Amino acid sequence: MKSTFGDMFELPDFNKQGKNDDDIPLHSADEFRDAAVVITTSILRTVNIFTPNLEPEIYDHQPFLDNILELCRGNRHASVKILVKDSSLAVKRGHGLIRLAQKLTSAIEIRNPVDEYLTINNAFMVTDSKSLIYRQQADSYNGLYNLRCEFRAKKLEDLFNTAWEHGVIDVETRNLHL
What we know:
By secondary structure, the protein is α+β, with helices and mostly antiparallel strands. It contains 6 helices and 10 strands; from the N terminus they run βββαβααβααββββαβ. The strands form 2 sheets. It has an 8-stranded mixed sheet, with helices on both faces. A hairpin with a 3-residue loop joins strand 1 (4-5) and strand 2 (9-10). 39% of the residues are buried.
């Protein structure tokens, strides 16, 4: 399961590297939604999400939103960063994570990746640099989650942080005060 993004980044082979004995395979939107709730239940500080469209079937689920809210209220150093390729449908539907971001602007930020990162066809979430949910193909619900794989979580975070640094604020999700 090797993914390459030109010369800028290469993910590890998810079947051979890292602490993969604890991998739990996922094969449906419901399983990804449940995994998102599990890995955000005990987060201490950071959540990084790389998503094509803020998949409402995963991220607009009340237990997940409650975990994010609890993190942000319970830790003044909490950081939730979301890179979304296209948020327009989520905005139209009133996505709960967007509403949280609009209320908790110091803890939650949403950006769009610039063109060179739009070709990345993965979707993932990393929490506290150790837990991860990963889909090799963003348009497929086949992947895995692991609560304790710092090696692969770090690789995903490196990719995320590079894309984040070049990303631009998602103007569609900003809360405009008139």
